[in-house]
Design brief:
With 183 residues, the chain is an alpha/beta fold. Helices cover 23% and strands 26% of the residues. The chain is built from five helices and ten strands. The protein has helices at residues 30-40, 72-83, 103-111, 136-142, 150-153, and strands at 3-9, 24-25, 28-29, 46-50, 61-64, 90-95, 116-121, 124-132, 160-163, 180-181. The chain starts with a strand and ends with a strand.
């Protein structure tokens, strides 16, 4: 089973005041941290969708989303479409702005025996989310705006909810905090 990682990193970071991908926390850019966490958690290859910010990302393939301003849904579509030309069986999707995500949390999602697995943090759904290839076309059909795969997941009873709150924090970085800097 080949599991890819997909990092959605195309946004402008309006609330944050700049794109988040190049923001440095603890000496590491958020985009590089996301790639490392996915790789260490069992994802290979890793694909990063870029948009508002463009730059080199080590240890990952990148694809540009020319419609990044439409929201996360367009980035998810671009990433899944790019992966359809590979031998990948499933993909673990995460956001670039989750500095508390860890590789043990990703490992739990990757190893879940389910075609759809979603991380939970003390019962609250979050990222990452794993989707088997069989779901990609349906996700692309409904991914729009900032909802990403939310409309696809809504009301489904076949989603394995995997608690990771004991090994990770799913809080996204919406505003600058002490210790962050632009790259």
């Amino acid at each position: 089973m080949t599991t890819a990682g997909l990092v959605l990193a195309a946004g402008a970071g309006r609330r944050y005041g700049q794109p988040k991908a190049p923001v440095v926390i603890d000496g590491e850019r958020l985009v590089d941290r996301a790639v490392r966490v996915l790789r260490d958690g069992g994802c290979d290859p890793v694909l990063v969708v870029l948009g508002a910010w463009q730059g080199e990302v080590l240890h990952a393939d990148t694809v540009e989303n020319p419609d990044w301003a439409e929201g996360m849904g367009s980035s998810l579509r671009v990433g899944l479409t790019k992966l359809t030309d590979t031998n990948v069986d499933e993909v673990v999707v995460t956001l670039v702005d989750l500095p508390g995500l860890t590789s043990p949390a990703v490992e739990r999602i990757v190893s879940a025996d389910a075609s759809i697995a979603q991380a939970t943090y003390r019962g609250e759904r979050g990222h990452p989310v794993k989707f088997a290839r069989e779901h990609w076309a349906a996700i692309c059909g409904v991914a729009a705006g900032d909802a990403g795969a939310r409309n696809f997941l809504k009301g489904r009873t076949d989603v394995a909810l995997i608690e990771v709150g004991d090994v990770a924090d799913g809080t996204d970085l919406d505003e600058p905090v002490d210790g962050t800097s632009a790259s």
